[in-house]
Amino acid sequence: MKTLYRLQAIVTKELTQLKRDRMTFGMVIMIPLIQLMLFGFAINTNIRDIPVGVVDQSQTALSRVLIQTVRATQVVEFTEQFYDVKAAQAAIARGEVRAVLVIPQDVSQRLVRHKTVGLGTPASSDEETSRPVAQWIVDGSDTMIAAAIKGLRAMPLTELLGLPANRMTPTFEVALFYNPEQRTAVNIVPGLVGVILTMTMIMFTSAAIVRERERGNLEMLITTPIRSIELMLGKIIPYMLIGIVQVAIILGLGYSVFNVPINGSLLQLVAATLLFIMASLTLGLVISTIAKSQLQSMQMTIFVLLPSILLSGFMFPYEGMPLAAQYIAEALPATHFMRLIRGVVLRDVEIIDMTYDVTWLAIFTIIGLIVASLRFKKNLG
């Protein structure tokens, strides 16, 4: 009986302490609630409205009907129009579109030939009947996006011409860039860099200020002439070197073990990585100035980490998420780094051509440092 009394006393004490710790109590309730609602709606493998472009070399009524027929599937959404294939390929490399539909100048003749053969007219050659009527140029680095567009290969054309699904049904040709073999590792390994850096960098600095407070070093820092911004910068600089080492390990093993190519410049890769590391470290510092204990800092880190993994495009295509989830994803540094590192590593893009993501990470870092510095001053006061 005495054991039960002592056990009851400890349980009561822990529950009372949890009740008084409002942030921890709130996390216990809010983490599963928010994560369930967010990911339940956001995670969707049925991809719709993939942003694509078109190069219409025909400029005929038939080519416009063909574009509208493809759009009606709701799998893709034509957001850009290009005048030549070279400009379209550059847009794919920059990540502005995920694929481009190239309609040749003689599309009318190709469709008419397929239709007459389908009605019984003999074909002059097998090559003529198997000739595609148009071509998809696809960013094959994302296997789910590529699979969705490959599903459009014949369906719209069969409906357009009213032909049965036989060997003479016209098809699109699908050209997969950057990952023609459709190997999952090509897309996953660069994404892992973002996930691992998010996990480690935020975790390192999220407990930085809290740890100083718990060890009793905060009072010593107050008496030194160091400024708040200098303290924040001093906290993040050592971890920047650790982050670079982690990137080298991941990409090095990815190249040697999984044969994942590094097509871009190493200088561009280092610049993009350092920018993301700084953004992640400053986010950790902001968390550290909010949390009252290391336990709270860990809980808040997990709260940021899960959306960074599931909403950034690492596991599920960004285009498959509803608009509200995309807005949340845009607020996460990991989303912008996923685009940057995949662009540099897989598509050999210069980061200057991805100014939106670079600018966003830079602004996030500056604002994060300012907020962390101001909150640290407030805590000192």
Automatic annotation (TrEMBL):
Q: Where in the cell is it found?
A: Cell inner membrane; Cell membrane
Q: Report any Pfam family annotated for this entry.
A: ABC2_membrane_3
Is Nuclease there in the keyword field? no
Highest taxon listed in the record's lineage: Bacteria
- Keyword Transmembrane recorded: yes
Q: Where are the transmembrane segments?
A: 23-43, 188-210, 236-258, 264-288, 300-318, 358-376
The residue ranges of the ABC transmembrane type-2 domain are: 154-379
- Assign the protein's first listed, main location to one coarse class: membrane
Molecular functions per Gene Ontology: ABC-type transporter activity
Keywords recorded for this protein, A-Z: Cell membrane, Membrane, Transmembrane, Transmembrane helix, Transport
Its record classes its membrane topology as:
Multi-pass membrane protein
Annotated GO CC locations: ATP-binding cassette (ABC) transporter complex
Q: Which family does it belong to?
A: Belongs to the ABC-2 integral membrane protein family.
This protein is called: Transport permease protein
Species name = Shewanella fidelis
